[in-house]
Amino acid sequence: MALKVMEHPDLKLELRNHNLSLGERTHIMGILNVTPDSFSDGGQYLDSRKAVRRAREMADEGADIIDVGGESSRPGSAPVGLDEELKRVMPVIEEVAKKTNIPISIDTYKSEVARRALDGGAEIVNDISALNFDTRMADLIAQRKVPVILMHMRGTPKDMQNDLHYDSLIPEILTYLSQSIDRAETTGVNPRKIVIDPGIGFGKSAEDNLRIIRNLSEFKILVKPILLGTSRKSFIGKILNNEEGDRLEGSIASVVAGIINGANIVRVHDVKETKKAVLITDAIKSADG
To answer: What domains are there in the chain, each with its CATH number?
Structure first.
């Protein structure tokens, strides 16, 4: 039996110092990896001054959110210790909060990193484990009353690409995200502050990623805003037969397809170029007739 797809009744995301009207237009999350080994930009912004400069640049280019991460989640990556992750992200978050008027999200699954980041100026927690890796994370989100992004992933970044078989791809991801939403809401997280992410590239084959983008509208049944992160990922390189630094056009094409199929937030490296494509796509979607 086909499930009835429901539109989100009110796509407003209330933050501590900002309100994002996700129903009015697509929002752009700019990626700021403060890591030596992220798959695309590892090592570029380890210097906190360069990282802050890049954050300000992305804000000027049209980013609506800056997503700061201090631990790579590329396939095969190993975990980073708490102290090292804090050392990487905290100077950047504190300076970006001082020098820009743009919401900051902290890309972490560790509750202590999230707590310190929120104290330092972050307003959103982006948890690739969907609250599964750290049992204290849900309580922190509930207590701080901040938005959380719940992403689908099988296993951990170190082993997530080992077994890519799904009996039924979309239903399995929906079930996982639904269970994560239930866990969050049962803990006390505000249902209106939950965003979902199907996890492109996290425990999926290239074909799986394409199917997710094509069928993204099915995720509306969860009645949550949808974040899509396709930027520079390997499925684009596989199709185009090129490396991470030469995937701009492919990334933009995937973003456009995602927006048409229901994405409310797109997480990207190339903010300036993506912003232009987003404006055109939004205009087409909102055109009468």
So the answer is: 12-284 (3.20.20.20)
